[in-house]
User: Fold this.
Amino acid sequence: GIPLARGRFLRPLLNISRSEIEDYLKERNISFRTDSTNLENEMTRNRIRNILVPVLDKNFAGWKTALENLSDKSFYDSQMLENLAADAAKKINFVYSGQSVTFDAEGFFSLHRAIKTRILMMAVKEAGAAQRIPQAFLGRWTDLKYAESKKTECCAGLSFSLRNGKFNIEKKCR
Assistant:
């Protein structure tokens, strides 16, 4: 779910339903606008809102609370994993220089996959990927056998390589 706050962005009305907001505005004669595309089901989020949510509301009492609880748990789990990844990055000598990131391969491949994935995401961010890198691609590079067999592979303008005991991610593809 969307967090109530992320950085400088606050969402104070996130826990208030649209109907509650509309009722409030109507009581005070305040006009509002409804985006007509919200009623179209071409986009996945609209199909979820217009088709799936009413079915869940009708058939599964408490599903929203369960989803909110899962979202909270996931948020805190993610924060912990980010902290563990930052600590692990220090231990594997994660070094950022210019548009390149290098770290110790042996230490990296000894880590849990969740930590390895986050370290790769940190490296991708630091190196400056041209676009989003698919999770499946990152997942393959968390596997030692795959990395050893590939040696070098490009994605989103970044080169991922394993050489001389070092894992390297850099802005240019060779």
